[in-house]
Amino acid sequence: MAVRVQAEPFDLGAESTAFAAGLRRAGAMVTFTGLVRDNGGALQAMEIEHYPGMTERAIAAMVDEAVTRWSLEDALVIHRYGRLGPQDQIMMVATAAPHRGDAFAAAEFLMDYLKSRAPFWKKELAADGSAWVAAKDEDEAALKRW
Amino acid sequence: MAVRVQAEPFDLGAESTAFAAGLRRAGAMVTFTGLVRDNGGALQAMEIEHYPGMTERAIAAMVDEAVTRWSLEDALVIHRYGRLGPQDQIMMVATAAPHRGDAFAAAEFLMDYLKSRAPFWKKELAADGSAWVAAKDEDEAALKRW
Amino acid sequence: MVLDVLYFAWVRERIGLGRERVETTAVTVADLVAELSAREERYALAFADLKSLRVALDQDLAEFSAPLAGVREVAFFPPMTGG
Amino acid sequence: MVLDVLYFAWVRERIGLGRERVETTAVTVADLVAELSAREERYALAFADLKSLRVALDQDLAEFSAPLAGVREVAFFPPMTGG
Prior knowledge:
A: 34% helix, C: alpha+beta, Ubiquitin-like (UB roll), Beta-grasp_dom_sf (chains C, D)
């Protein structure tokens, strides 16, 4: 299990390869990657602010919870902060389990919690100004299924 | 959209990188990778038989169906056949969509259909003999949710 | 009518071949199964439990009650285990 | 009691700083919010709508009714938008 919060880009391919190489019993591996959407070309950059200390702590608690709920061989969360450009990779989650149901459920659970319970805030910068991304009701509602 | 049925191994990292590099509007990318489980060390190899022609046709139909159901920017299915060893990568699916719900749902839909509707058959070879893997009721039942 | 008949996985192993050409007057898949089963013990054995078998006509899944008119390729196999 | 008070995202922007030390006798988070809001307009503005705010005590999410006894670090921020 690993959690990394970093400003630097990560290499999705290399991370996927390394995660897979560490598996010994898994039959299923899922990755999720979040990308900066450029909203039809208007977006110049995205600034991601976070709460150092609480971020790592909150994500580690989510991973621990996922491990108690599903049969996971491994899990990885990488989340960036700082300035990102359109289509840059923001974050990734990887999960591995004996069966696909657990790997998918754990990845979706982690994503739902990262969306609404990890202390990150996104600001979109466009030619006509900047705005903080508002939390969506549907993201809060998504937590209820777990 | 791409479907590949092949005997050769694939490079999960390189495939993930290439898939991500082609995206222009996606906010979410999901990959699933299926691995040969070694059942506690007993498994020597897995032989995967398939129905050339029907395999490609059946998978392409699943991808088409996924595209009509969800807002997908891209989808990829790679599935191997032939002889594989423990922890070898059997297959992968990748999906990309504006939002995470569509990317996850499409990946799970494709996996459920690949399990029970793509003409592959797995045989497990162990020191004490070989046996065809039986289809699971739960895999057939999983189709009902779509 | 002449059909290409294909067998996969344990159906192939029981019958002892993966593909053959079959001259038949069968109207449905079920008729063809009855005809083949009557031929030899190995066919009867492979087709003993139709619930554990699937059939594809020209590479599309079908029912055992489906008509064979216009069909060129029939495939018999156990439930699929992909993914 | 002396607290480290942290502000993030638009709360930080409205108040104009990311972190300060606050000497207070507030019993609950709500008391602290009232005290800060009474200080200056920019605080009152940032805390105008508590429903659009979240609070963490020593890096754990908490309610505005939570007591501050034993707490060292209080953080105010909008609903999170990670992932």
